[in-house]
């Protein structure tokens, strides 16, 4: 499963870039607002740091304006993926931009029926929001399983990009459910390394090693 970081903070991305774990980045208008930066500058800088797909979201709500914004965002760098909301206009714009050769990430997906329409509109990625469904009292992960089954039934090539990931359990379950990618905040990636038994086991190994008085490097 590909791991994307869900952030527009360049310092966070810089800190993680050398792990080789980051396959791409997703942003949204809220994350750009939080960064305090201009969208074109933020996306350009992110694209120089992370060479995989970087989603930049259009904010227009009418098809023609979405298409114009999408073309402008895509011109920032070759690895920009245009992010569009799952609305009738968004899916029409998705079809046009896809036919022009751009990659589109259809976002704000909350049902399998919506995901089916996005795939039929040529989306390169569909972003189901797991955490927000859980917040609403619905099993978010069940949606990933449903979309996986539908896309496999009909050999859709749209990649499932699990979003609104709030816990390491979400990350694990999205991988089990067959999501192609998960986009996560850096704090979840940080937490994914951690296990109390790793820490206590390492401490015991190092305590025993110290008693030997040896040094591997001499
Ligand atoms: O990028 C969209 C997404 O991952 C949002 O997450 O935590 O705001 O629901 P969240």
What keyword list fits this structure?
11 helices; globular; alpha/beta; 17% strand; 218 residues; binds SN-glycerol-3-phosphate; TIM Barrel
Strand arrangement, major sheet:
1-2-3-4-5-6-7-8
How can the largest sheet be summarized? 8 strands, parallel, barrel
Give the SSE string.
EHEHHEHEHEHEHHEHEHH
Helicity, as a percent range: 40-55%
Tally of DSSP β-strands: 8
Low-confidence stretches: none
Please state the overall shape, judged from the principal axes of the Cα atoms.
globular
According to CATH, what is the class?
Alpha Beta
Query: What is the CATH superfamily?
Result: Aldolase class I
Classification by helices and strands: alpha/beta
Q: Bound compounds, please?
A: SN-glycerol-3-phosphate
Radius of gyration: 20 Å
CATH topology-level name: TIM Barrel
Mean pLDDT: 98
Strand content: 15-25%
């Amino acid at each position: 499963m590909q791991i994307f970081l869900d952030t527009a903070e360049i310092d966070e991305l810089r800190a993680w870039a050398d792990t080789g774990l980051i396959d791409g980045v997703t942003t949204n208008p809220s994350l750009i607002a939080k960064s305090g930066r201009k969208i074109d500058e933020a996306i350009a800088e992110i694209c120089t740091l992370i060479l995989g797909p970087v989603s930049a979201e259009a904010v227009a709500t009418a098809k023609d304006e979405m298409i114009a914004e999408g073309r402008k965002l895509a011109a920032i760098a070759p690895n920009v993926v245009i992010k569009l909301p799952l609305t009738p206009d968004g899916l029409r714009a998705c079809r046009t931009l896809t036919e022009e050769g751009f990659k589109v990430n259809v976002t704000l997906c909350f049902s399998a029926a919506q995901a089916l329409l996005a795939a039929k509109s040529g989306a390169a990625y569909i972003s189901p929001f797991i955490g927000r469904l859980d917040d609403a009292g619905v099993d978010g992960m069940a949606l990933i399983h449903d979309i996986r089954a539908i896309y496999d039934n009909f050999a859709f090539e749209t990649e499932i990009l699990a979003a609104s990931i709030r816990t390491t359990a979400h990350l694990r379950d999205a991988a089990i459910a067959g999501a192609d990618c998960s986009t996560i905040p850096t704090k979840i990636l940080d937490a994914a390394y951690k296990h109390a038994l790793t820490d206590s086991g390492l401490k015991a190994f190092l305590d025993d090693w110290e008693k030997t008085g040896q040094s591997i490097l001499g």
